[in-house]
Amino acid sequence: MGVFTKLFGGKKSSGTVSALAMPFFPTGAEPDIQHAIDWVRTRFPDSESIEDVDTKDGAMTAEIPGGRLGVVHVPAQIPRDDLEGPLALAWHWPGAQEAIEGHESHAVCFASSSVLPLIAVRLFHSRFVAGLAATAGASGVYVGSALLVREPTEFISEVQQANAESLPLLCWVGFNPVGDGEERSGYTTGMKDFGLLELEIRHAQLGWSELMDFLVNIAHYEITSGIQIGDGETLGFSETDRRQVQHVSSEFIPDATVALITS
Hints:
With 263 residues, this protein is of the alpha+beta class. It has 2 domains: 3-163, Cell Division Protein Zipa, Chain: A; 174-261, no CATH class. The protein is built from 7 helices and 13 strands. The protein has helices at 3-8, 33-43, 80-88, 96-102, 118-136, 152-161, 208-225; strands spanning 17-25, 51-56, 59-64, 67-74, 105-113, 140-143, 148-150, 174-180, 183-189, 198-204, 234-236, 242-249, 257-261. The strands form 2 sheets. It has a 7-stranded antiparallel sheet, sandwiched between helices. It starts with a helix and ends with a strand.
């Protein structure tokens, strides 16, 4: 059985949920997987169990409730083409370009389960990725499905403070501002991982903090509740300011339908 087959497994059942991210490192040295596991167990004693750890030739697989955790260390940079989009959207990390250009290896970190709910899998997986980043001195963390790169100390800090009621959304979803004169727009990347439409606000006369906080709050509500805000429903910037949601083609993401919050 090949490394990647063992890590990712074969065809998943319809009830299987998963998570994938890639911490990247300034050297080609293999990370100490057991050190990362111990980091998670120490800081999150109530976290899901990690059993039957099998480590060999830069790869690790382990059993978690209803599935597996896996890591493959790749002694090469993440392909440059994969990082162009995330770099263009990394407004929150001024040092992203330098960190990415200087990395020499990365790890593919994967978790899946057929019995744990998606949020539990994502929290568990993020804790392990944070542990690997902390113990191996990562240069950053790449979440490809969200077009997101995060500064490592911020990723670690946010994951350590998170729980099922207060999710580390900035480690899971990209919140992307778009300037247009005095008007401001914004959109998400990564909501699709939770079976939800990406969110979009266009040409709003709002401050950046207000606009981005609003997107984060709506995303947090949808993910924690599992509820997609419907086409034609309303929500509010405040108790007196109600906005309609429309399911329309995205202005920023090719070939995507989004939940547009009208301004």
